[in-house]
Design goal:
single chain, Sulfatase_Mod_Factor_Kinase, 14 strands, four-stranded mixed β-sheet, 14% strand, paralog of FGE (formylglycine-generating enzyme), three-stranded antiparallel β-sheet, 11 helices, alpha+beta, binds calcium ion
């Protein structure tokens, strides 16, 4: 590229015009000389513009989020209805943070996938190299059909079954993934405003990083779910779920074979924001879909914290995971219950209810929401 030195000379002349010379020029002449009417930047104006720009970025990054206040609360079940891992109650403090007011939707997850070409866990074959680390030595390699891309789909039974045997209503379905939550014949067309499901903990982490957010700790989640209420059973208070207005998308009737769907949604997701928000403005914090939290799961973690005997600031979970139901399989915490929850079965829409699954599991009733630190 060749420079036109005559142009450079003219520009230098103009930008060095003294102010009094400008005053002597006609308006037409002034209009032709940019140096006379374009203001120079000022340091204070520069700083102010940058601050404004940063504030507008901050405000767009917390769009759709609620600011959860800092607080101290007694974490765990406050009545006899909890499962063993919800005890003992222990005192926890959390700082203020931002939290998504809804579960992450299919539309939001689709934007992430479109921007990054991300492939979810359910869309990939199971790695035998990874799986064999979690099974007894010498376990033979399963057939390819069992390692093929697949995910867990709820299939109602035809009648009453032993509620301890979840294999009767959960099936690994080949081709089930976030775009096909119930299997290859299903789709999310028209469900853009439903929570994304069939996403693993790893997928949720990837989305959160992309969005400039993170997954909530279990303590943050429970504090947020309680919505400012003290020691009450549900995010809405103490009223039983089937009294008064419908409070969440759950299961009515006999689990796992007869969902009367009085709330309008038959063992499937509801669009977000169909039920009243809790005291902190969070929708569907109970029911609809389970929500992944950051923490490793241990059944005895609360007992460990209680033994310390001090106020714990935002515990981030144990260093390792242990679930006596499936020793040897590391798991992450899930919270909030889902459209499959029912008083006669799990009642996991209680604020203290805990659930767990391996970080590579996608399920038809599991999604997530994100949080962001307050700076
Ligand atoms: Ca329902």
């Amino acid at each position: 590229m060749r420079f036109n030195w005559s142009c450079v000379f003219v520009v230098l002349m103009i930008t060095n015009l003294p102010h009094d010379l400008c005053a002597q020029l006609s308006q037409r002449q002034k209009d032709s000389l940019a140096a006379c009417h374009v203001p120079l930047p000022s340091k204070r104006g520069f700083v102010k513009a940058n601050l404004t720009q940063k504030n507008s970025i901050k405000s767009s990054m917390v769009q759709g989020m609620k600011k959860i206040p800092a607080g101290i609360f007694d974490m765990g079940a406050h009545d006899e209805k909890g499962r063993t891992d919800e005890y003992p109650v222990h005192r926890v403090a959390v700082k203020s943070f931002w939290m998504d007011e809804t579960e992450v939707t299919n539309a939001q997850f689709a934007a992430f996938v479109a921007a990054t070409a991300y492939v979810t866990t359910a869309e990939k074959a199971i790695s035998w190299e990874e799986l064999k680390k979690q099974v007894p030595a010498g376990t033979p390699r399963p057939p390819d059909s069992l390692l093929a891309p697949s995910s867990l789909v709820f299939v109602p039974t035809t009648g009453p079954v032993n509620l301890m045997d979840y294999s009767q209503w959960w099936q690994f379905v080949r081709g089930a993934d976030w775009r096909h939550p119930e299997g290859p014949q299903s789709s999310i067309v028209g469900k853009e405003n439903h929570p994304v499901v069939q996403v693993s903990w790893d997928d949720a982490q990837a989305y959160a990083r992309w969005a400039g957010k993170r997954l909530p700790t279990e303590a943050e989640w429970e504090w947020a779910a309680r919505g400012g209420l003290k020691n009450l059973e549900f995010p809405w208070g103490s009223e039983p779920i089937e009294s008064g207005v419908f409070k969440a998308n759950t299961w009515q009737g006999k689990f796992p074979y007869k969902d009367e769907a009085k709330d309008g949604y038959v063992h499937t997701t509801a669009p977000v924001k169909q039920f009243a928000a809790n005291g902190f403005g969070l929708y569907d914090i109970a029911g609809n879909v389970w929500e992944w939290c950051f923490d490793n799961y241990r059944h005895d973690y609360y007992a460990t914290l209680k033994k310390k005997g001090t106020l714990v600031l935002n515990p981030k979970g144990p260093m390792n995971s242990y679930d006596p139901d499936e020793p040897g399989i590391p798991k992450k915490v899930m919270r909030g219950g889902s459209f499959l929850c029912n008083d006669s079965y799990c009642a996991s829409y209680r604020s203290s209810a805990r659930m767990k699954s391996s970080p590579d599991s996608g399920l038809m009733h599991t999604g997530f929401r994100c949080v962001k630190d307050v700076n």
